[in-house]
Amino acid sequence: MIKLYRFPPLDRLPSASPFCVKLEAYFRMAGIDYEPRDMSDPRKSPKGKLPFTRDGDTVVADSAVIIDYLKSRYGDPLDKDLSAADRATALAYRRMMEEHCYFCIVQMRWARDESWAQVQSRYFSSLPLPLRWFVPGMAQKQVRRDLRGHGIGRHTDAEINAVAVEDLRAVSDLLGDKPYLLGAAPTSLDAAGYGLLSSVLFAPFALPIQAEVDELKNLAAYCARLEKQYFTDA
Ligand SMILES: N[C@@H](CCC(=O)N[C@@H](CS)C(=O)NCC(=O)O)C(=O)O
Known about the structure:
Blueprint: E1 2-6, H1 18-30, E2 34-38, E3 52-55, E4 58-61, H2 63-74, H3 84-110, H4 113-124, H5 131-150, H6 157-175, H7 188-202, H8 210-215, H9 217-230
Parallel strand pairs: 1-2
Antiparallel strand pairs: 1-3, 3-4
The chain binds glutathione.
Glutathione is lined by residues 17-19, 42, 48-51, 62-64.
C-alpha cells in the first residue's frame, strides 16, 4: 500500500500540515488506499518538506507532484471531466491558496508574539531538554527568513491580515452555495481547499482575522461537510 509521510495529527486535523491534509483528502476523495506514517523531521523528506509518498520503489515529494503521479498511475476520477476553463480556475485558486494565503497564515502563527506562544507549546513542548530551549527559536528564525524571502514577510501585520481575508473571501465567493468548489461533484481543488481551510478553521490557534473568517459561513459549513464525508474515521 502507498505510504504517506505526514506531520502528526493536531487535534481534529489528521495532520498539522495543510499540504498533508490536502493529500490525505485527495486519497480519500479518489478512493485510493494509503497508509499514513507520522514523522516530525521534514529534513528526512527528499525535498525537505512534507508530505512525500512511497509507492513500492517510487518516492514522490510535494503534494501537487504526488497528485499528478497518482493520476497517471491510478487514473483521474476527480478531474477527468473538467472543462479547460474549470481547470484554469482550479489552478489559479490552488496557487492563490497554497502560494499566497498559506504563507499569510504561517506569518500570523509563527511570526507574531500572540500566537507564537501557542504554536511553540503545541509543536515543541514534547522536545526533551535542552533541545526545548533552543529548537523553537531556531525554527521561528528560519520561518521568518523564509517568509521574508517569499515576500509576504515584508508587509505589515495589518496588510497581511487584509490580503488573507481577500483570498478567503474569493474562495467563499467561488463556493457560493454549491456543494463543492467547482460544482456538484468533488475535484482535486476541494482537496486543496479542505487542506487550507480546515487548517484555518480547525487548528487550535487564535487567528487575528477570526471575526472576518466567522462571516464566511459557507466555508465553515463546507469544511464541516467534507470532514463528515471523508474524515469521520480520522
Ligand atoms: N509545495 C509543497 C509544500 C509543503 C510544505 O510547505 N510543507 C511544510 C509543512 S505545511 C513543511 O514541510 N515545512 C517544513 C520546513 O519548511 O522545514 C507541497 O505541496 O507539498
